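hey m, so remember when u said the tokens were messed up on ur end? i reran from scratch. heres the input so u can diff it against urs
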Amino acid sequence: MNKELDNFIIDAFKEIGSIGMGNATTSLSKMIEKRVQLNLSDARLFEPSEIIDMIPDSITMTGIMIPVRGDINGLVMLLFEFGNAVYLSNLLLQRIEHDDDPSIYESVLLETGNIIAGSYLDSLSSFLSLKILHSVPDISLGPIKDILDRGISMMGNEPANILNLETMFMVHPSEKDVGAGTIYGDMFLLLDSHSLDKIQSSIRNMLG
């Protein structure tokens, strides 16, 4: 299998992802009652070991992981630097009365991950006519290697390749405030070899 996706397949992933991000933006805006921009800036494919090389072990990361089953087998992993994850959870909890319990911060991040990943997978399923089911999300904190190992364990087998969908959140405190809190993150789709081949074949069929 050619590990490099053709340009038109990458463009298809980005287009499908942008539609999914648009749906997630609407859901998140309603959830936190703030204006949210959620953009997918790039898409690329690389091997699992490259993620570890990208991020030093000294940086604590937050990974939100959602197993995927059905016509494809894999895992969606939303990855944030820990400080960005804290900032995002604080924004999401501003209008909610709660005790200062770490579990509530994890819960709101899991729900956010569920919205974002679910929107992307629904878009992927609809466009490619594939049955794609996602399970209950999980969260992991620590060095990138530990998070990736946890994700691969949840997936059940070693991914052939990883699709990286670079995302950017901009959360505006109010409609009148032009300033925005920017949160950078990445969404990774870990796929086994069969699933990647199936998605590429479906995209080619869709594009005729």
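this time it looks ok to me. Helices lie at 7-32, 48-54, 82-93, 102-128, 144-155, 193-207. if urs says something different then somethings off w ur setup not the seq
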